Every structure is written in C-alpha cells, then in structure tokens.
Amino acid sequence: MTGLASKSQLRMSFLRYALVTVPAVVLLGTLSGALSGSGYDNPWFAALDKPAFMPPGWAFGAAWTLVYILLGLSLAMVLHARGARGRERALVLFGLQLALNLAWSPVFFGMHEMSLALSLIAAMIVVAVAMILFIWRIRPLAALLLFPCLGWLMLAAALNFQILVLNPGAETLAPGAASTDISL
C-alpha cells in the first residue's frame, strides 16, 4: 500500500510518542531528584545560606515538572519527524542534555559538589543551546518548547553560583549526619 497518512493518523502517531516520552522524562527527573535527596528537606542544603532571589521550595517542583513535560513533548515531536535531516544529532544532543540534567541533583544534593554541579549546569546550557538550534531545523515548535528549560537552567546556574559564593567550604560539611555512637 502506498499512500500518505491522514492528518488524524499523524496526530495519533505523535500522541503515541508523547504518551511515552512525557511520562518517561517526568519520571526520570522525579527519580533523580528523589533518590539524591534534593530540595529543602535535605539537611545539608537546609543549612546553607541562600541568595535573596531563591524561589520558594514549591516553585522548584512546579518548574521542573513543567520543564520535564515540555522536554517530553519536544522529544515526541522530534521522534515523530522521521526522515528529518539532522534528527539523529538532535536526539543525541537531547540524550546528552537529559543525562547531564539527571546527574545534577545527585552531584549537588547527594555528593555536595557545588563546583562540579555548576560545571554540569554550564555544560547543560551549552548543550541545550545546541539542541535548540538543531531541533529548530526539524520542528520550530519543538525548539520553542525548550526555551523555558533554557531559562530555568540559567536561573539554576545563577542560584548554584550564588550558593557556592555564599557558602565557602560547604562542600565538605555534612550537617544533620546522625551519630553512630551507642550511649550506655
């Protein structure tokens, strides 16, 4: 059978991709944060001085959820663009950006490596810009969906930098660590 797909068939194809990519990206992001103890409940993080422009804790969950949803939708659009020139490069950049993104919480909150986390964010920003440029050639709407992600990464980089400046030596601290001594 040789024929073109109808508009409804194309929509359903995109929806099938999105039904997998959106929950998968949101789940991966949520697991990365949860398994690394990210957030204000982390005793080490709670003990740090924060910059005046630090958003409230609930804003991080809301913003990252939105960012991951947009990333998942963008990925679905690129996956749906079969045969598009540069699609493979865009997917590789997407995978690299997501891997760097998922590594940040364990590095910052789990390992307390603020300098390394700042380097990861810088790399994420560079890869996100390249990813946006490649995806723009394939699906401009998919690239536009990535601008909030880029903006949030820039805010996260500024926060990471300011927390690093406000807390010299905090990478070696481990407040909240429970004692293993047995008292008699």
List keywords for this structure.
184 residues, mainly alpha, 7 helices, single chain
**Outline, from the CA principal axes?**
elongated
Rg on CA atoms, Å: 20 Å
Helix content: over 70%
State the total count of DSSP E strands.
Answer: 0
- The fraction of residues in strands falls at under 5%
**Class computed from helices, strands and strand pairing:** mainly alpha
Count helical runs.
Answer: 7
Task: Indicate the low-confidence ranges by residue numbers.
Answer: none
Give the distance, in angstroms, between the N- and C-terminal Cα atoms.
Answer: 82 Å
Tell me the quaternary state: single chain
Series of secondary-structure elements, N-terminal to C-terminal? HHHHHHH
The largest β sheet comes out as: none
- Our count of domains comes out at 1
Mean pLDDT: 89
